[in-house]
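Sharing a chain and its predicted structure for anyone who wants a worked example. Both blocks are below, sequence first, tokens second.
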Amino acid sequence: MGDKNRKRGRKPKNSDASTTAVPQTLDTTATDDVVVDPASDNDRRPRLRGRPKKHSKLSPDKPEKRSISSSGPAVENGSVELALVSGNGVTLGFSGDGVPGGAVERVVPAMDAVVKVFCTHTEPNFSLPWQRKRQYSSSSSGFVIGGRRVLTNAHSVEHYTQVKLKKRGSDTKYLATVLAIGTECDIAMLTVNDDEFWEGISPVDFGELPALQDAVTVVGYPIGGDTISVTSGVVSRIEILSYVHGSTELLGLQIDAAINSGNSGGPAFNDKGKCVGIAFQSLKHEDAENIGYVIPTPVIMHFILDYEKNRAYTGFPILGVEWQKMENPDLRTAMGMKSHQKGVRIRRIDPTAPESEVLKPSDIILSFDAVDIANDGTVPFRHGERIGFSYLVSQKYTGDNAAIKVLRENEILSFNIKLSSHRKLIPSHNKGKHPSYYIIAGFVFTSVSVPYLRSEYGKEYEYEAPVKLLDKLMHSMPQSPDEQLVVVSQVLVADINIGYEEIVNTQVLAFNGKPVKNLKSLATMVENCDDEFLKFDLDYHQIVVLRTKTAKAATVDILTTHCIPSPMSDDLKPGI
């Protein structure tokens, strides 16, 4: 009967013929968080100087790296991807069962609240700190919230010189003002002074933290076109994630919706049309496909309330300790723990943290704000889930107090600790500040930061930089709030520094017998030195000796030769 009613034409395929879906392939290159790569057909600017992009497989001894979705695909003038995300095109439309009127229909409201962010960046030149790099442009996504404000990613507007926003369906770009940049949580807040921009826009509403397998829809302006794009997926994991841009660990959502270059800063909606997060990074690995990450609402609300409370971003506090798991029963017994007691052991305490005044190494942290900590460092998190106890700390604000219970020499002690943000000896970011420098007799002194290491050694700086600098990056703690790691960045060749030309990125330990605390203290000591010689004690037991009068006189000629406007950055000048 069915054969008689079948229309003429091509014979149907056999019902038992198997069909194989061909997945889109992602770029499997492991990347760090600052890479310049063309992101559109219109972009033909060559890659910025640095190490060539490697396409070899990750070696077993190198950890996999997460990469941040670009602050701008469809990028103009050489957009920066703060970690590459494959541009495999975008999926336009809504998800469901693929059939109009299907059983699953998802409606995304407040689509008009999603805007396209255009940013012009001018990065500092950390290797030549008296200069800036050539400007470039990028585009990303953002969305409107209450109070005439717009949220996007921090890496989308990093080192900005101009930011413009364009509404959906509009041909006008509006100048935006950056209100706050949260480097750690990778969120930035913008506003527009032009009243016309806010006409016809309804802000998005925030929803609760989704559960596993909840559907999410990511909306933004990724590569592959100029109009708005929608991709869908589900929440596949909720845990403490590494935020690549901020070099921090905060709560994050893992989803299987495609997050491509340009999705950065776009909202992720649930089935009810509520915003449950901000798209911000993707995992780039040869064994992974469609793994994207979303900043969840608890982190977003922390950023917003922090700004509303302080009229500025103050950051996420952390507990300034390094701790060890207590899963070994012999270790617990040796530390005096009873069978019902659980916790983690303090290995080291940051000397600059308020916790150093009350906590001691080998204390066992039993609870934080009355929440018991397990031997693996986790705490209960919703039904049937556990999460690292740093989540409890991240819910606090800088300056808040926290109740900590510890076990010390078989005695349980309780402390009320004031939390603060953490400062590293080698900071992960300069947070918009210009790099500092000081020049004497052709010796260029500067302080070390992660952007500086990346500028000197490329995106693989974790493997290419000197071992001693990497050791300090990973393990050293500052002994005072203003301590810096000062190095001789390079030597500008001149007659006075003959024999010292090969000194590069070597730490300065002391000047004329006095320890070097930071770059400003070094500049002050050199400028005020009346001794016959300038003597610098360097790492690796090297010394540099220069005659004082000759060195200061030669500095003027060296600055003129290299077109350097000043022997020191503005922040090092007296009275500043």
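Comments welcome. The domain at 437-572 is CATH 3.20.190.20 (N-terminal domain of MutM-like DNA repair proteins).
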